[in-house]
């Protein structure tokens, strides 16, 4: 079965909550209450999401977390990669060195194509679409890759 980890699922839920609160800063406690995710888990996730430049944090009495960019500019794959690392169906999906069987494997090339298709599908779903209660319509168009400016 293909399945995201519970931590990644929670990260998407947190990000969707913040998308609904786009013009407000939310503390980890507020996020825990709003989502039902335990606060220690929220704290762990927001640190990871800040590190991945998906959230920005603000210190102080009015501090908390906000999306680092509009929800329409955050792809679901961005969140998955922030928590789990690159999306891959098999070890060889990331590179030629990742599998001992590669020399004799007859399916590696096709697994890489399947991985690319899944990556493209996930890149085409924005956080805004996922947070919206409307059904996502297919086909999807990939979200432009975000380039952080220094």
Strand content: 5-15%
Summed up, the helix count is 6
Mean pLDDT: 86
- CATH topology label of the domain at 6-67: Arc Repressor Mutant, subunit A
Q: What structural category arises from helix and sheet content?
A: mainly alpha
Q: How is the biggest beta sheet arranged?
A: 2 strands, antiparallel
What would you say the CATH architecture of the domain at 6-67 is?
Orthogonal Bundle
Query: What are the low-pLDDT stretches, counting only 5+ consecutive residues below 50?
Result: none
Classify the oligomer.
single chain
Report, as a whole number of angstroms, the end-to-end distance.
40 Å
Write down the CATH class of the domain at 6-67.
Mainly Alpha
Integer-rounded radius of gyration: 17 Å
How does the overall form come out from the CA principal axes? elongated
Name the CATH superfamily assignment of the domain at 6-67.
Winged helix-like DNA-binding domain superfamily/Winged helix DNA-binding domain
Helix content: 40-55%
How many E strands? 2
| N-to-C series of helices and strands | HHHEEHHH
State the strand order across the main sheet.
1-2
GO molecular function, one term: DNA-binding transcription factor activity
Organism: Allopseudospirillum japonicum
Protein name: FeS assembly SUF system regulator
GO cellular component, one term: cytosol
């Amino acid at each position: 079965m293909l399945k995201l980890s519970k931590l990644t699922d929670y990260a998407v839920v947190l990000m969707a909550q913040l998308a609904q609160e786009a013009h407000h800063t939310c503390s980890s406690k507020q996020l825990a209450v709003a989502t039902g995710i335990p606060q220690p888990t929220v704290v762990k996730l927001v640190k990871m999401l800040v590190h991945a430049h998906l959230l920005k944090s603000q210190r102080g009495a009015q501090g908390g977390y906000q999306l680092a960019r509009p929800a329409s500019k955050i792809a679901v794959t961005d969140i998955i990669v922030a928590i789990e690392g690159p999306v891959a169906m098999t070890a060889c999906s990331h590179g030629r060195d990742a599998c001992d069987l590669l020399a004799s494997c007859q399916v590696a090339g096709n697994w890489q194509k399947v991985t690319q298709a899944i990556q493209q599908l996930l890149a085409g779903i924005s956080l805004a679409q996922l947070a919206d209660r409307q059904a996502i319509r297919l086909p999807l168009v990939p979200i432009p890759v975000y380039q952080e400016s220094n």
